[in-house]
Structure formats: structure tokens, C-alpha cells
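It is worth pausing here to work through a concrete case rather than discussing structure prediction in the abstract. The textbook approach is simple: state the sequence, then state the predicted structure, then interpret. We follow exactly that order.
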Amino acid sequence: MVDVCLILEGTYPYVVGGVSKWTHALIKNLSHLKFSIVHLYEERKETMKYPIPENVESIIEIDVKNGLGFKFDFRDVLYLIPRAKVYHCLSTGFAGVLGLQIKSALKRPLIVTEHGIYWKELEFGVYEVECGFKIFKSEKEKMNICIARREFLRIFKEIALKCYLKADLVTTVCKYNLEQQLSLIPAQMVEDVKHKFKVIENFIEPGFFNPGGRSTNDEKVVTFIGRVVPIKDVKTFIKAMPLISRRFPNVKFLIVGDLTQDSSYSSECIELADSLGVSDKVKFIGEARALDYLKSTDILVLPSVSEAQPFVILEAIASGIPVVATSVGGIPEILNERGIECGLLFEAGNHGKLAEHVIKLLIDENLWKKFSENAIKKAQKFTLENFIKSYSKIYSEFIKS
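Step two, the predicted structure:
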């Protein structure tokens, strides 16, 4: 029997991203514990993106497709699930369904951690939730998309509510998420359950605390780092590029991130850059280490439709890089908490405001320097040590019980 069984959807160890980074750091830094991983997938991926730590005893893969649709009953595969002292779901959704069925059958403690809020992302109208599933794209040709969206949203809200009420502990990464979780619970029940909800913020790995300073030459670098998928809304960044380039002809744009996860969307982004006449100013780097490109970046842009507490913003502020990002999820908590600014916010989809903010930071060196100094100070609280201590204590308490 292992200590902890992690249940994930479409992420670790096959996809690079925030949830996978979080999971890898958790396992690697809790080397005294034994882990198993249950990986739920829609489309099987052959190549692992992360080396598996020695304290992982097994990885079990389960297909969530059942005939023409998705399956919401995993009782027929419970015999495959590794026996563990604690089960820990890294989302609600399919992972939540499986976690609840394991808790019912095996009577073991269940922890649920949400990065992106599954049902909230569906409410926003995205086709892909942060955990990696492209729910509506998969079903688009089989049923009316509006009916599918309403039905999936209803189902996933019901699943989330059951997870919130029945899990022994619910954690998330920012205050915004906590508010959303509690908002789904009937008002008369909130007082009885809110004690088991906890915010444990994300972390910055030590290597990122290495500010590089503002570029001294005329060629400024504005960078997006993340998966090139619709939920990140890379197209809004590309639409802002001509506006920025008119004011700063020497500006260079970088798009750093996996181009293969949604190859059709990546192709659309490349075509958009060409149609807007900026293909000579933007480089699509593909999958790469964020640290390698933050060193040469003047401004980080994150135009996502939905986020929780993005690692890339934390890594940027640790590097002293001002950020221009959407005012979604927990991003305002990082960039503008208590009036200490280290970036500028814009409404999702507003490429004009994105461009305006980037131009403002490129023009005003004093503002850039102020944001950079604030960013470095703010980054000090997001330590890997605090993150590991929090989960080490949680696991220890549940294992003992």
C-alpha cells in the first residue's frame, strides 16, 4: 500500500503545464512518501514529459471515453486502482467522480485540489478546461454544441458540489478560487463545511530568483509563455502586435510553448500573425524552459480566458519582469494585491488594451523599474519550502488518522 494516490486528468506526466509542474514538485520533494498515479485520459499520449521520481510505485492509465460519450461511472475499474492511505484528486470533473467512488468503496480519506475551477471554466465558454480535456471539441460533431455545453456544465457542477461536500479536505491555489468554490455550496451549508477549505499558494522554484534587468538596447522583447491552446487566447496577443510595432518598430515578440497540444489552433495563430503582417516580428519557439527565455524578456504577456495562479507569472515576478495579463482568476491577487502593483490588467479578449499597457511600460522606464522592484519583493512569499511543508503536514495528519 502506498501513502498517496494522485488522480489526474490529461496532465502529468504527459503534458507540460502548471498542474504537471505542481505535481512533479510535490512528489519529488516528498521523497519520504510513496506515491501512485492514476492518469485519466481522452487521447492517449505515448511520450512522458517528466522523469518519474523513484518514489512513484505505479502509474495506472484509464480511458474516460465510453462508446460515443464520456463515462461518469468508474466502479467497473476500481479493481485497477492502487491501494493507498490517502487519495488526492487534482481536479473535480472525471477525477472527482473517480475520487468519490474510491472514497465510497474503500473508506479512505479524499483530498481534492483545484487549480482551474472546472465548472467555472465551462461557464466562461471555453472548449478546453485547464486540466487538458477538450470536452466540446470531442463532441462537437455528435450533438448540438449548446445542448452539450449546458448538459456538461450541469453535470460538472453537480460533481464539483459533491466533491466539496464529501471530500475530507479541499485545497486551491488562490482566494478567487476559494470564493468560487464556496459560491457553489447552498448558503445554509457553507458554515458547516468551510473549515475544510484551504488556500495553499503555488511556489517559485529557486532558480527563477535571478532578475536580469531591463534590456539596454533598442530591441525590446515581449513574451508569452504557455501552452498554445484556446484557453490561453494567444490570438489576442497576436492581434495586439501590429499596434505595439507601430509605436516600437524594433520590438520582438516571442511565443514560447507547446505547439502540438492543439496543432490546429497553433496553425491558426501562425496564419493570423502572417495575415496581420507581423510574422517577421514574432517567433514561435515551441516547448522550452521558461527560465531560458525570461532572462531576455522585458515584459511578460498572459492573455488567458481563465487562470488560477499561473506559475509563469510567479516566475516572471521572481525575475523582476513586469506583467501584462487578463484580470481573471487569481491574477489580480498577484499583480495588484494591497495596491502594490507589479503589472497591468486588461479584460480578456481586449487586444487594444493589451497593446496600450505594453506600450505604456515600454515608454515609461520609471514605471517599469517600480513594477520590477515590487515584483521581486512580492515573489519572496511564494516559496517551495512553504508549499512542501503545507502538504507534508496534510498528508501526515491523514495517514496517521
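Step three, interpretation. Residues 161 and 185 are 6 Å apart (CA to CA). The chain has a mean pLDDT of 92.
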